[in-house]
Fold these 3 entries.
Entry 1:
Amino acid sequence: MSRHVSRHRSPREARGSIRNRRATFPVLAAGAVAVLLLVVWVAMDFPPLSSGGADSKARSGDPGSSATPGAPAAPSPSSSPAASPPSSSSPPAASPAADPDQLLSEQLAPILAATTASLSVAVLDMEDGDGADYGVQAGKKTYDTASIVKVDILAALLLKAQDQGRVLTAQEKSYATSMIKVSDNASADALWQAIGGADGLDAANERLGLTSTTGGSGPLWGLTQSTAADQIALLSAVFGADSGSPLGAGSQTYIQGLMGGIAAGQEWGVSAAGVVTGLKNGWLARSATGLWDINSIGRIVADGHGYLVAVLSSGSVSKEAGISLVEKAAKTAVAVSASGDDGDTEDAGGAGGR
């Protein structure tokens, strides 16, 4: 017997079908409203819808839009050269090199602040030619040389002998040895006369490259006026290895030998800055003031470099104070140059107060 299957839906199925039909009506109504709005929009001739902002409105040529195009968008920081951060691989900008004269002046400032004396200081690195100079400009202020002028006197004597095509006499050599090694004033008197006094010294200095040095008047060789920079020029003529010096090789060797054998008790001065290979000091108490002129010139070696150093001073309250001042200045001068790589009272000479 076959089973009869009823075609009537259950009350639950019927209620579900009704809910489905009811949900369809709002969707159809919403669609109809949208179509109606679109028809009204077209009929009213509104501008077309766009998502392009002010720029797309300007590009459209729509007469209803502003005649002034929209402002272009600001460039992004990443695309602007001015706003781009510097590359980490780019080398840092080079800082300007420090001026050696200014650096020397700055380093000497605390030394000078502790004294009423004045200084003229110069240094030259013989390896690379770098140097520094402190003091008033040449021609505006000079210093009494005292006995450092004895090197200048000997250089003038040797130039004179070279011009005459001869070597020094035994007497001249004896005077030269005493004048340089023990700073004998009587020997300096004799050789001062031999070179023609101040005129002979000035003529020799013109050849040696000293431009701000003037021989002392009459017999007063110790009151010759000079600067530290001029003393470096003199030392360059004595110790320079090139052919630019007017002194012949034999004359250079002779002066170097004497300056390398200074008597015991006179080894102070620029020698404090390194191992000394040539030295001459001068000291003079001025009778009018009781203050001291303390000077030192020479060649020293420090950290494998040869340096020419000259320190001239005036106005120290004692010889000892002047020596201390000169030695501090010499050390400072050599340190500055290297960084860019880093006895008894003596007369001035001559009769009548030297």
Entry 2:
Amino acid sequence: MARRSKGRPVDGILLLHKPEGISSNKALQRAKGIYFAQKAGHTGALDPLATGMLPICFGEATKFSQFLLDTDKTYVVRAKLGERTTTSDSDGEVVETRPVAVTQEMLEEQVASFLGESDQYPSMYSALKYEGKPLYFYARQGIEVPRKCRKINVFSLTLDEYDAENEEIQMTAHVSKGTYIRTIVDDLGEKLGCGAHVIMLHRSKVGHYPSDKMLSLEQLEEKLNQAKAEDLPASTYLDELLLPMDTALVDLPCIEIDEAQGIAFGHGQTVSCGELPDGPIKVVANGQFAGVGERNDQGLLKAKRALSSQQD
């Protein structure tokens, strides 16, 4: 007998405002529980120290989470100068203290040096895996393992504030996927000769999603309690907070096909629909989002990620 999934089918994207002090997975599980959703996944972890935008994909939207993982991000970060820590943030232990002798001009010059493409080695306290285990598993045991550098792009990095009295700075960073802000701060501290670590990190944007669309766990619980108080299904107030799943694909080229082609697309059959661009394509069938396709070697459209409803 097939095992029934716990929860209800929910499809869409929630822009969760992750609070400080909990992991991204714990925040995900709380949101999933509030929605009583069968399936959910987040798109890019934030450290427990960090707050801000954590897009959560429910149900069918999980098929398109990679596009949010691959998009650029914007952060506001506050750093303490003069101290270097084991984790490059305030959750770690201070391993080195040095005097701070920097000026506004020095800061602006060194901050600007991070702009553009570069290679970055991920922190040993990141969630990247080595031989099946996250790097932080080894770091907590004092074990150093090989790490591959990755290409990153810092589109903009601005110095918003220099608090000389408290030896703190605040910056706004717009960066490509996979960029570790902790590593940028640690590297900046070394360039300045005094060391530095993150004391506050807030992700304000993921791709095109604006910060004012974020919702806290408390706001979600209020909606849930409102529904309960009115003896209504939780979906009454919760589901209207979700964004359509194709909002994760606004940067993709779009092609429209008819209903019959949509059915074929959903069943994994190729579709002839004229000249197609390279790379992933957002597919709309008979006015409804159908999934993501791509051109095959014969120039036909084939499904890369199709909605289950298209396969019915």
Entry 3:
Amino acid sequence: MNGNISRRNVLRGAGVAVLGATVAGWATGCSSVAAGGPASGAAANLLETAKSQGFLRVGIANEPPYTQVSADGKVTGCEPDVLRAVCKRLGIDDVQGIVTPYESMIPGLNANRWDVIAAGLFMKQSRCGQVLYSEPVIVSTESFAIPKGNPKGITSVANVLADKSLRIAVLPGGFEEGVLKSANVPASQQVKINDGRSGLEALKANRADAFMLPTLSLQALAKDDASFDISKPVDDAPRTGSGAAFRKADAAFHEAYNKELAAFKKTPEFAEILTKWGFDPTVVEGVTTEELCKTAG
């Protein structure tokens, strides 16, 4: 997310919520920080600032298994868990999460509301032109949530293009919206929803014929809702993946982070984190940011 959701019966509304105010925080014990607070700006050395103040501000979503905010306020998920581990290797003890919609992540980063994004924000050309992505942490596939039995036979983007009556629910600013736009699926066939739960509601109310989301995100939703089927990974959706995203002005931090990330990937802990959240740690081997940033959209 790209990336939704909850599985998110917790936060992820239309605005930005500071986790310190609404969520108890990370396992490291984060405290609140106001958006646009005193952490690094373009002129500051982000690494030294974060080490000095003891925390890094992170823009996140609430979309298991990529990110997750539990009922007790704990922020975990594949991306935050990897970020936390790499930051500890850099001497940064605490990470403060700020929940925001996907469409606000890069604008908020570049407006200094947070210092890094770790939210399953999938790489594609338009995003890679605005931020510095770390090397990939996860590689993901896309699927459709469809009514039981898939009565309209939706398995591909080509199906959607071929039948102008089909309506597909997507998150505004999400990778899936970009996939449909790149395939020239008309806006009239796209149903914009706020999160995973509202995507399923659109499906149940017949306001959408399918809901496009990362395969693992739909599987997470299905744990609490058995009313829908999940298609096989969509063959004509590009392979994608994500990592941490930094401001272009923070190139020094980006370089240091990538160095420690490469070392961390060689440890058993990296594979343990990915496996815990349902990802295959071998899939990301050999995949580069340069490759994923060629994805159109």
